[in-house]
Amino acid sequence: MKPLVVIPVRGGSKGIPNKNIKKLKGKPLIEYTLDAAKEVFPIEQICISTDSVEIKNVAEKNGLEVPFLRPDELATDTASTYDVLIHALEFYEKKGYSPEVVIILQATSPFRGAKHILEALKLFDDEMDMLVSVKETKSNPYYVLFEEDNNGWLVKSKSGDFTRRQDCPQVWEYNGAIYIINTESLRKSSILNFQKIKKYVMEDVNSLDLDTPLDWMIAEKLLETKEFVRALNQ
């Protein structure tokens, strides 16, 4: 299986300014993902897709090559992940490397390690459009999620006669840490239209996605816990 690992990292961030290179316990956030990727893949298979010279410099100091900066049309808030992936894929194909799978590792998942990537890779097969990392959601649509009807009344998002959360069907939430995508499927449609998707389940703590200042505070507190750091490095 020939992979292309894409780490998409824009320079701008509204929730946490410059978060991809902001230091989390003394280490730029992106480095957590770079370190995990380098444990699993040769550096020539790892693509840092960015519009930022600062991010490019951090990646290169960590031994990665950053052979391009994104064109302007892919450096906006409205640029789609699909377009970013196709751009990276076509760039490498022009260099003579034709990946069979595209693997997305988002830099905002610092507690996704090499062991998680390896476990996910073992579950993937070429019958799938995508294998994606998930966690079991606490916001179960059978129990705690509601929508407004035409009269403004709250109704359950998904109908079901359950009196205890434990009795509800399990519902999975993408955690943003790992996406393993069949290249042929990606050529045909965007991720949103994939039909053959399977899951790789991760623990809540490893699923932490840093999107808000509160998320950042939680990550810092976890890294102050010796037991957590020890478990993270095992």
Automatic annotation (TrEMBL):
Q: Which organism is it from?
A: Flagellimonas algicola
- Taxonomically, which superkingdom? Bacteria
**Pfam families, per database record:** CTP_transf_3 (PF02348)
Listed A to Z, the keywords are: Nucleotidyltransferase, Transferase
Against Gene3D superfamilies, the record matches this protein to: Spore Coat Polysaccharide Biosynthesis Protein SpsA, Chain A
- InterPro entries (UniProt xref): CMP-NeuNAc_synthase (IPR050793), Cytidylyl_trans (IPR003329), Nucleotide-diphossugar_trans (IPR029044)
Q: Which SUPFAM superfamilies match?
A: Nucleotide-diphospho-sugar transferases
Q: Indicate what this protein is called per its UniProt record.
A: Acylneuraminate cytidylyltransferase family protein
Q: Name one GO molecular function term.
A: nucleotidyltransferase activity
Upper taxonomic lineage: Bacteria, Pseudomonadati, Bacteroidota, Flavobacteriia, Flavobacteriales
